[in-house]
Amino acid sequence: MARKKKEVVEEEKKQVASAGEGIAEDRPEGKPFMNPPVEPVLYKPKLTDEDCREAEFRCKRYHEKMQALENRLIENETYYRQQYSDYKDTDDRKSLPEKGSGYLINAIINKVADMMDNYPQPTILPREESDEETASILSKVIPAILERNNYTKVYYKCAMEKVKNGVSVAGVFWNPTKDNIGDVEIKRIDIINMRWEPNIEDIQDSKEVFILTESDVDTMKVLYPQILGNLTGEFGTDLSSYSDSEVARSEDKVIVYDWYYKKTVSVEIGGQVFPKTVLHYAKFCNGKLLYASENDPAKESGWYEDGQYPFIFDVMYPIKNTPVGFGMIDIIREPQEFIDKMNKALIQNVLANARPRRFAKDSTGINEEEFNDYNNLIVHYEGDPNGIVPIDVNPLPPIYAQILENVKEELKENSGNRDFSQGATSGGVTAASAIAALQEASSKTSRTMNLVSYDAFKSLITMVISRMQQFYSVPRTYRIIMNNENYYAMVGISKDSPMASDSMAELLPDSVFDQSIGKYMGGHKPIYDISVGAEKASPYSRVAQNEFAKELFQLGVFNPQLADQTLGMLKMMDFDQKEEIIQMVSQNQTLLQENMKMKQLLQGLGGIVAETTGDTRIMQMFGMPEETQAMPGRASGQSIAVNQLGEARKENTTSQAEKARIEARERAGV
Q1: b vs e for 140-170, b when ≥16 Cβ sit within 10 Å of the residue's Cβ?
Q2: Which whole number is the average pLDDT over 560-564?
Q3: Among 246, 348, 524, 605, which residue is least crowded by beta carbons within 10 Å?
C-alpha cells in the first residue's frame, strides 16, 4: 500500500514537471515563472448614452402628439392675462378691445377661493391596532411636513391651474440636501414641459414620463465636469413656454431631462412567480447620461420603492384617453369674447352719438384744429359753413343691451358663479338663513371639485408616508400638540437605529438595518388609511359649526342623564365628527352609571363607619343624618341591626319567613 502511494506521488511530480517545461519554453531565459494573466471582468452598465439618445427621440415624438394640449394651454393663458386679442387675426382684432373685461377672471378667482376655503386636512388611520399610536403621531407630523414645504402656496397654485386649464400636477420627491439630512419635498409641476405616453387616462399607466427643465451651462459644467466639460448652450425647441416674449432664450442655457420609467420584474412568492413594477430614474443632458438608478447598486429595488411615478394629477373635467381635462376657461371663453365685442360696440355707439363725425367739403376752408378742440369758442373758416354736415348715427335699440345681459348671465350659469355664491342677493331675499341656504345650493360644483381634489390629496399623503418609510433612516424630531400640550415626537424607520429613542414612532416596526445593502430589512410595513376633511377656513363654515354645537348643548345632548334619548337622535343625524360625539356621550353615560354605583356604595358604608368608629364624615358628605346617638326605644350601647348598605332595619314582629324574604330582597338590591 505504501509503495503504491509512493508511485502515485511520483506520477504527480512528473505531471507538474512536464507542465512546467511547457511553460518554461514560452517564458524568456532567466525570468521567474508567473501565472498566465487573467482578463478582468468589466462592469457593463445597464443604461448608456445610446439609451438616453433613444429616450430623447421618444420624448420629441411624445411632444408632437401633445401639440393640441400645448396650444390649448397657451391660448388659455392669454385669456387669463386678458391679452387674447393679440393672438387673433386682423379682422377679429378690430372688433375686440385691447383689454378684455374681468368676468372670466372673476369666475376663476371665486372657484379658487372656494377651494382655499376648504383647504384639506389629513387624518391618518391605522388598519391594525398595533399601529394606532404611530398613526396618531403621523396625523400631527404630516401637517408639519406640509407646512415646511409651504404647501398652502403649492395648493393655491395647483387650484389655480386646475380651474384655468382643467388639470394640475403636484410632485412628491425626496431631496437629500434638504435640512442637511434630507426630507420630503412637494412641488407643483408645470404640465407644459411634461411628456408622457399617449392614449392613457392614468399617468401611472404610462411606460415613461419626462420632465424638461432649463439650466445654465456653467452650472451643469460645475456639477458634472467630467461628462459635460465641453458643453455648449443651444436653443432647445423641445422646451415650451407660454409666451416667447417673456422667456429669454440664450446660448447659455441647456435642456436637462429627468426621465422616469417603469420596468417589470419577476418576484417569487410561495413558490409562484408574480410580476412586480419597479420605478427607475435617469438624468441626461445633450445626449450624455448623468445618473441612472438602474446602474446604482444601492437602487436595485428602484428609485422609489412604492413603484409609482411621483406625480399626482388633479383633473377638473376629465377627457377620454388622456390624463388631463378641460377647465373653466375652455367653457366660458367664447361668452367672454362675445361680451368684449358687445362692450366695444356699445362704447363706440355711445361715442359716435356723443361726438358725432361730420362730412366736410374741401371748399369749406375750416380750421380743423380749432374745430376739433372743444375748448375753442371761435372756429375760423373761409368758405361756406354749410359744407359741414354731421354724420347721422342711430342709437342701438335696448334689445342689444338685453342681449349683452343675457350673455353675462350665461357666463355666470356655465361657470357656476351665481350671485348668491358671492354673497349678493336678489328678489328680496334678506334672511341670513335663506341666503346661507342659497349659497350652499349654488356651491354644488365647488363641492364636487373639492371631493376630487381630496382624492388627489390622499394620493399625495400616501406618497409622503412612503418617502418617510423609505428614507427616514435618521430619526427626525417634530414639535406637535398632543392632548393640548407641546410634545416632541421622534419619527424614524426603526428603533434599530442608534439614534432612536424608546418612544420613537416606528415607520417600519421590528425592521433591522442590513449593513451589506444599507437598508432596513424585515419587520412589519404598516398600511394606513387617509381621511381628508376641510380645515374650515371659511368664516361662515366656522360660525355654522359653532352654532350647531351650541344647539346640541341646548338640547341637552351632553347631559349624561339623557344619554339614551341622545344616542337614538344622533344615530339618525348626519354631520361632521358624528362618531366622536357619539363616543363622548357614551363615555359620559358610563361615567355617570359608575358614579351612581359608587355613591350608593359609599352611602351604605357611611352608616357602618359611623356605627363602628364614630366617624360621620362620609354621612355628612352625602347629607345623611347622624345616627350615632341611641335610637328611641333602645338603651344606650345597645346594638342596632343594619343591612349590608348600613341602613338600620325596622324591627317588627313579623314571622321568621317574612324576615328571610326581607333579607333576601336587601341582598339582591345590592
Answers
A1: bbbbebbeebebeebbbbbbbbbbbbbbbbb
A2: 86
A3: 246
Q: How far apart are CA 422 and CA 412, in angstroms?
A: 11
Name the grid cell of 352.
359716435
CA distance 313 to 372: 60
- The 3-state DSSP class for residue 506 equals strand
Q: How far apart are the first and last CA of the chain?
A: 101
> What is the arithmetic mean of pLDDT over 233-258?
75
Taking the C-alpha atoms of residue 454 and residue 448, their distance in angstroms, rounded to an integer, is 10
Q: What is the pLDDT of residue 248?
A: 53
- Give the pLDDT confidence score for residue 629 in this predicted structure: 41
Taking a C-beta distance cutoff of 8 angstroms, is the pair 294, 46 a contact? yes
Centre a 10 Å sphere on the Cβ of residue 185 and count the other Cβ atoms it contains: 18
Sheet holding 167-175, edge to edge: 183-189, 167-175, 311-315
The C-alpha cell 505531471 sits at: 15
- Rounded alpha-carbon distances, angstroms, from residue 547 to 217, 245, 553, 568: 61, 54, 10, 21
Average pLDDT over residues 502-524: 79
Residue 254's beta-bridge partner residues? 215
102 near 332, Cβ under 8 Å? no
CA distance 283 to 220: 12
Give the CA distances from residue 381 to residues 362, 367, 501, in Å, rounded to whole numbers and listed in that order.
11, 6, 100
Q: How far apart, in whole angstroms, are the C-alpha atoms of residue 382 and residue 367? A: 9
pLDDT for position 33? 43
Angle at 663 between CA 658 and CA 667, to 5 degrees: 150
The least confident of 105-119, 144-158, 276-290, 406-420 is 406-420
State pTM to two decimals.
0.73
Q: Report the chain's mean pLDDT, rounded to a whole number.
A: 79
Per-position DSSP letters for 99-147, written without gaps between them: S--SHHHHHHHHHHHHHHHT-EEEEEEESSGGGHHHHHHHHHHHHHHHH
Separation CA 537–CA 119 (nearest Å)? 7
